[in-house]
């Protein structure tokens, strides 16, 4: 494999008409011949005005460019798809693989020597790294950072944990319309992604544990000047990685994924990471079964006191020492010798980190809980696995047996959930079918089914809920997700009927449907698949190629690495 610096050098030094055209057009953009002798660094920017979380990335990009220039590189920015949770329909997850393809082909097809990935909202981060891992040129991740805390009437607010909490209270009639409007006006007060330990916070923090981002990437607030300083430092560092030929394939090892899963559990991170990490690992050629998540969870204590599992938010975590301080506490459980984009080991990166608030970042000797916040469940209802974030669940419901109340899809939920005549009790298990990768389509974040209003008014705030969908990392409750195989392809979830007894036992990692095999066989004979959501276009490609949740919902033809070689040089 040639040195990555030669990709841009050979491109601009080409003889004949090809070289002439490349140099002439680059000069026409205002650059000089000297610029074209330096390593060309691509800045992959997921900026978009349709995505609030990424709408400040132009300023971050300028900081990266300064760093690249300081180190002797030649920075050029290019856009890729921006996936935002607020605007994009039906779900941003449907387009994660499309964004990964976009990123990979832009890296592969352009004469880049290295790339800095600017991401923020939760799907942009795994998508960009998936693409870069497959192209395997020197790469650094830079996130835009979390929002500042929201404030209202003396309470700290967090998006979108409090979006859900206050909406439930408003539905229950316990708060006024004036209070509800006040929350809306004071919840989001700066640039950045959600400030609780949701999926964006989780994935951007995990980039530090994977070794793909500089220390501080996870928690520096978006509006803090140190976020731009981090971006500038990343610009300098990517030139060093090119010169030393350090690539994602050297960093994204099995040990690195173990480190990421350990951090995931220690911070009470999002269940979505259990979809994204296997997808990234699949690009890196690392086997990452669901069982590995559960093994590491059992030995990884919860030490970061973060909402929605705990009390604090990302701004507070930053002041307390940030992700480097959490990683330093975790070092006895980590592969500290793992290589990172700093060119140093993970242990060396965090050697000087300090905890300034032990209530936010606990020690291994004084954890919030003895094991991590996530569990992998199995049983006849989820033979290939399911996920629960037990750190954000109601302890009393983590061992529960009750009758199923089944909703066949999202439209069924909308049609029936608010009906005062709905026959439901707090002991019921709410079951949502056909919301997985194919059935959703796109595995939307609707697994956190709402509590029926008639029960909200009785004071009920949590119930066991089961689906093949995902949920936002900002959500909370006793919610079982990612049931595999999904209902739309005939998984056992498709066979559940109203009144069936379902048993959840988190301690024993069990999810059991108490229906006989003979009865299930009869139901299977009567079952038929729902009609496909798409007949053409990208949606049809998605339905034909997407893997199930345990493999990360990547496309089957995208798994693996295909390192970008020299830019094609025509012979005329």
What does this protein structure show overall?
The structure is a single chain. With 572 residues, this protein is α/β, with parallel strands linked by helices. The protein has 20 helices and 14 strands. It has helices at 5-12, 16-28, 57-70, 96-109, 124-135, 161-172, 177-186, 199-210, 225-244, 248-251, 254-266, 273-284, 290-299, 314-319, 322-330, 346-349, 410-416, 453-456, 517-526, 537-545, and strands at residues 40-45, 74-79, 114-119, 139-143, 150-152, 155-157, 375-379, 382-388, 399-407, 429-432, 465-467, 479-484, 501-505, 510-513. The strands form 3 sheets. Strands 7-8-12-11-10-9-13-14 form an 8-stranded mixed β-sheet. Strands 2-1-3-4 form a 4-stranded parallel β-sheet, sandwiched between helices. Strand 9 (399-407), helix 17 and strand 10 (429-432) form a beta-alpha-beta unit. Helix 4 (96-109) packs parallel to helix 5, helix 6 (161-172) packs antiparallel against helix 7 (177-186) and helix 11 crosses helix 13. The longest helix is centred in the middle third of the chain and has 20 residues, at 225-244.
């Amino acid at each position: 494999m040639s040195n990555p610096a030669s990709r841009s050098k050979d491109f601009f030094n080409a003889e004949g008409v090809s070289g002439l055209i490349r140099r002439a057009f680059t000069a026409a953009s205002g650059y000089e011949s000297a610029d074209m002798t330096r390593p060309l660094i691509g800045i992959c920017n997921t900026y978009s005005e349709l995505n609030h979380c990424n709408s400040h990335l132009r300023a971050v990009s300028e900081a990266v460019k300064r760093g690249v220039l300081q180190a002797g590189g030649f920075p050029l920015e290019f856009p890729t798809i921006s996936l935002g949770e607020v605007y994009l329909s039906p779900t941003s997850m449907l387009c994660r693989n499309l964004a990964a393809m976009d990123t990979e082909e832009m890296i592969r097809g352009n004469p880049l020597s290295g790339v800095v990935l600017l991401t923020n909202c939760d799907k942009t981060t795994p998508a960009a790294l998936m693409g870069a891992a497959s192209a395997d040129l020197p790469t650094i991740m830079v996130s835009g950072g979390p929002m500042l805390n929201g404030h209202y009437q003396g309470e700290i607010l967090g998006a979108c944990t409090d979006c859900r909490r206050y909406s439930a209270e408003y539905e229950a009639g316990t708060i006024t319309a004036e209070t509800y409007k006040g929350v809306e006006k004071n919840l989001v007060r700066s640039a950045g992604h959600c400030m609780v330990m949701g999926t964006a916070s989780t994935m951007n923090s995990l980039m530090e544990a994977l070794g793909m981002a500089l220390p501080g990437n996870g928690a520096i607030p978006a509006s803090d000047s140190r976020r731009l300083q981090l971006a500038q430092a990343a610009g300098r560092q990517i030139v060093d990685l090119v010169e030393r030929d350090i690539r994602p394939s050297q960093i994204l090892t099995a040990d690195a994924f173990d480190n990421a899963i350990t951090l995931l559990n220690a911070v009470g991170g999002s269940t979505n990471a259990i979809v994204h990490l296997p997808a990234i690992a699949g690009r890196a050629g690392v086997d990452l079964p669901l069982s590995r998540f559960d093994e590491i969870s059992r030995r990884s204590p919860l030490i970061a006191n973060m909402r929605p599992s705990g009390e604090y938010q990302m701004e507070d975590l930053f002041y307390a020492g940030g992700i480097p301080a959490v990683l330093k506490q975790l070092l006895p459980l980590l592969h500290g010798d793992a290589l990172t984009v700093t060119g140093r080991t993970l242990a060396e990166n965090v050697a000087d980190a300090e905890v300034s608030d032990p209530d936010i970042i606990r020690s291994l000797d004084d954890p919030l809980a003895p094991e991590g916040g996530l569990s992998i469940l199995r049983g006849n209802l989820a033979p290939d696995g399911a996920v629960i974030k037990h750190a954000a669940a109601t302890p009393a419901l983590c061992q529960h047996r009750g009758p199923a109340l089944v909703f066949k899809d999202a439209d069924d939920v909308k049609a029936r959930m608010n009906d005062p005549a709905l026959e439901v009790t707090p002991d019921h298990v709410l079951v949502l079918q056909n919301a997985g990768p194919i059935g959703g389509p796109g595995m939307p974040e609707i697994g956190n089914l709402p509590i029926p209003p008639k029960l909200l008014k009785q004071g009920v705030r949590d119930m066991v809920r089961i689906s093949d969908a995902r949920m936002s990392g900002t959500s909370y409750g006793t919610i079982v997700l990612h049931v595999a195989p999904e209902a739309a392809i005939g998984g056992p979830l498709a066979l559940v009927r109203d009144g069936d007894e379902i048993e959840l036992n988190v301690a024993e990692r069990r999810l059991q449907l108490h229906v006989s095999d003979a009865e299930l066989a009869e139901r299977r004979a009567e079952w038929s698949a729902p009609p496909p959501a798409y007949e053409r276009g990208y949606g049809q490609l998605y339905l034909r190629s997407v893997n199930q949740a345990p493999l990360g919902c990547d496309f089957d033809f995208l798994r693996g690495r295909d390192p970008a070689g020299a830019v094609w040089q025509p012979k005329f």
